[in-house]
Specification:
By secondary structure, the chain is an alpha/beta fold. It has 10 helices and 8 strands. Helices cover 46% and strands 16% of the residues.
Length: 235
């Protein structure tokens, strides 16, 4: 994993940090269309849409460099394993290439670490058998976890075969924090990446998360943040 150098950061590099989130329950198919157009305009890394909207996003972004991502067992992570596997596989068949999977938070906090790992392994192995290039990001929902539980979740996600660990859904009482990013970066191997998500509204937040070791940020404020970067760069 190559740490992003904030001092020499270009617009293109920053844009490819963003997973543009279109995940609010009230967001419509029109919102998905507008969000995909925004991601194309700003050259974001991906859009992250609800599972029911994957097919639409794939069609809208066909032929572009913007990837289609989605969320699994979102936002609470409490579906049974068979349901999580089925949902994940369906989204892959629909064209999603990045899957942000919510860990079973309650079972993690219950100390059922082996069960949590086996569940993630089942999801990852099933989907990669269908599409080997699928990227997995495991969402912890750090607002509910102790520091020790965050470290344990990092170990579980890496052992299960995920490519990323991720702080939050954006639907809990708090989102990404600088301390959590530092802790997560220190708790996984170099090849595992860290995604900050939840409450990311400003350029300064993003730059600090990158300095702390994040390589991806989930936000619905992608355009505002990138416009602020353009202003600062031209000042």
């Amino acid at each position: 994993m190559t740490k992003i150098d904030v001092a020499t950061l270009t617009y293109s590099q920053l844009a490819k940090v963003f997973d543009h989130a279109i995940l609010k329950p009230e967001q419509t198919t029109k919102d998905v269309e507008e969000g995909c157009k925004l991601a194309l305009e700003y050259d974001a890394k991906s859009v992250c849409v609800k599972p029911c909207d994957v097919k639409q996003a794939v069609e809208l972004l066909k032929g572009s460099s913007v990837l289609v991502g989605t969320v699994i067992s979102f936002p609470h992570g409490n579906a049974p394993t068979t349901a999580k596997v089925a949902e994940a596989l369906q989204t892959v068949e629909d064209g999603a290439i990045e899957l942000d999977v919510v860990i079973n938070i309650g079972h993690l906090k219950s100390g059922k670490y082996e069960e949590c790992q086996k569940e993630l392994e089942a999801i990852i192995k099933t989907c990669k058998a269908k599409q080997p290039e699928v990227i997995f990001k495991i969402i912890f929902e750090n607002a509910y976890l102790t520091k020790d539980e965050i470290v344990q979740a990092c170990k579980i996600a890496e052992a299960a075969g995920a490519e990323f660990v991720k702080t939050s859904t954006g639907f809990a009482s708090s989102g990404a924090t600088y301390d959590d990013i530092e802790l997560m970066r220190a708790s996984v191997s170099d090849h595992i990446e860290v995604k900050a998500s939840g409450g990311i509204k400003t350029l300064d937040q993003v730059l600090t998360f990158l300095q702390k070791g994040a390589t991806r940020c989930g936000s619905s404020s992608t355009d505002k943040i990138l416009e602020e970067f353009k202003k600062r760069s031209s000042a």
